[in-house]
Amino acid sequence: MTTYDRIAVSISFIILIIGILDFDGVGALCFGTLILYWLVRLFIDDISFDLRRSPKTTNDKADALLKWNELLEEGAITQEEYDKAKRDLLG
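Predicted structure:
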């Protein structure tokens, strides 16, 4: 999530609170503005925070698995320990 997205989420949260509290009847205006803002960002594909798994996570798992494999080949761990570590890493 970029700094721009963090600021946008923070401001949206503040607008949402103001809308919920409905100071002087501005609740509908707040909600409308908030919905319009996020729809425009969605439409222009400007929402950069992505909840999918990042490639770095996959690389970290592969690196860890290689380290466990090296330990197994060196005789530092048993096959059972390697299998357990592999199951823990891969889920």
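Summary: DSSP finds four helices and no strands in the chain.
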